[in-house]
Amino acid sequence: MEEKLIQRLESAVARLESLSVGSQSRGIDLDAMAASTDPSIIAFEDLLTEYVGKVSSIAAKIGGQVQDITNVLSESFSVQKELLIKIKQTKKPDMVGLAEFLKPLNEKLMKAISMTEGRRSDFFNHLKSVAESLTALAWIAYVGKDMGMSMPIAHVEESWQAAEFYNNKVLVEYRNKDANHVEWARALKELYIPGLRDYVKSHYPLGPVWSATGAAVSVSVSAPPKAASKPSGPAPPPPPPASLFTSESSQPSSSRPKVGMAAVFQEIGSKPVTAGLRKVTDDMKTKNRSDRAGFVSAGEKEVRASAASVSKVAPPKFELQMGRKWVVENQIGKKDLLIEKCDSKQTVYIFGCKDSVLQIKGKVNNITVDKCTKMGVVFTDVVAACEIVNCNSVEVQCQGTAPTISVDNSAGCQLYLSKDSLEASITTAKSSEINVLVPGPDNDLVEHALPQQYIHSFEDGQFLTTPVSHSGG
Fold this sequence. Notes:
The protein is of the alpha/beta class. It contains twelve helices and 14 strands. Helix 4 runs antiparallel to helix 5, helix 5 runs parallel beside helix 8 and helix 8 packs antiparallel against helix 9.
């Protein structure tokens, strides 16, 4: 890497020397050439070649909207490179000048966001992954702690956390369908973590370094028409355009158009209370209608009961929330659920699943199985505990280690322990039919039933509790 950098620097110096002769007659900007050969710019070019190039090459295999949004991503990084070169020749601007300076980058980010709007496509998660991740490029707008923005390294990480929600959906959706999409999602993550994050950490941990002697940012100002009776003074600068790098907090709330529920209440308040109401005649009243007999038939009861039972079924979920909690909910008949590349700080919450199997690869902090029926869970290692609550007919297998396993208010629970997890502490409460299977002398599983009945006897001023043993005969 160092030899490659030295070669590129030597080549740049040779170019500068050759261009220095007659540069005035040809109008060559040597300052721009020097800025483009700065080590930080060269490192950004390496970032483009290694990471952006990888994402683009995979997107070309997929084509369609995935390639289109990836092209916007590539254009955005190229624009940031040009801005980094200009920063080395430009004085630090004010907020209005900064918005004008970053306008080319903002246009690319707005273009990516516009591609996610309208009718949802089959590649919505791809589009959102890129659109959300591109906000990481706003680290270049950091000019100090007072601007209400995280420092550059933290901003890149936070931006990717927002994008990772959709990126994980791509991984889950195409895990067993198309390897190109999986590879694309992984390459996109590598572009930001560690790619862009490590670049910012190495070269701009405190934000971009503006030139002390460079040119000022020119802000285009359109003057209002002059009045005939009064002399006009200098026109005030217009407000900056809508941008990811500025906020709308400076705009008075009374002048902003109402959106969301505020618009609904405003529309309701602008109309008379009785507008649109029809007059109720005598034949429309319930007491005078022949089709209302005052009782509910058995058929109506069944329809209402079935409608109520259907409405209680919530939509299934399989997602990583805030990078910390895997949520697996309402999965019915899914035998191939899989969570890969877990983090020891992450937890897994399984709720309302039926007739399904979930495999968890890697070490996680905690696993909770709640209100599941005929559910199978296979995990490798858990740091804290595996909890089984309000379940019926579940099977849980530990392939690694688990310090604690608790079973509460459950029936028909089968626990499979490996040799490394035999020291696990198993706690049960209000549960029945709990069997633990452990490896025997010949690696055959040996089943042990945990007692669910106890005998309490009063001796020597206190109660003694002993489990009821069952013979295997």
